[in-house]
Amino acid sequence: MTNRLRNPDTVHAPLGAYSHQVEIPAGARWLAMAGQVGADKDGHVSNDPVEQARQCLENIRRNVEAAGMEVSDIVNLTWYVVGEMDAKRRRELLSEFLGDHRPASTLVYVAGLASPDYKVEIDAWACRA
Fold this sequence. Notes:
The protein has a single domain (about 5-129), classed as CATH 3.30.1330.40. Strands 3, 4, 5, 6 and 7 form a five-stranded mixed β-sheet that branches. Helix 2 links the parallel strand 5 and strand 6 (about 105-110). The chain has helices at about 50-65, 85-100, and strands at about 5, 20-25, 30, 35, 75-80, 105-110, 120-129. It is an alpha+beta fold. Helix 1 (about 50-65) packs parallel to helix 2. It is about 25% helix and about 30% strand. The termini are close together.
């Protein structure tokens, strides 16, 4: 059995690139990731929140692949965003990253993150059935 992504007809349609539910089969292998910030491998952080988000997603991809999984194994993303972020660019970026995959997802606006340089942090869970 594989992870099952669902959108029940008893709730509103998703407002973006996500699913309302992800059902995980028994015996699946889980990967919990710490929140990924927009720092590249050398520690450089862009001033652009969308570029930080791009780097966060790349860091998530690298974590998933290091665990022998794929982006399609991601079951949940939680975004923490400080200040304004171009919603259209964020949605385009997320669609590029996910392709047709639609994990559960939450977007939270916060007052700040671990460093004032960070404008975006994304944590993720992946599961391989």
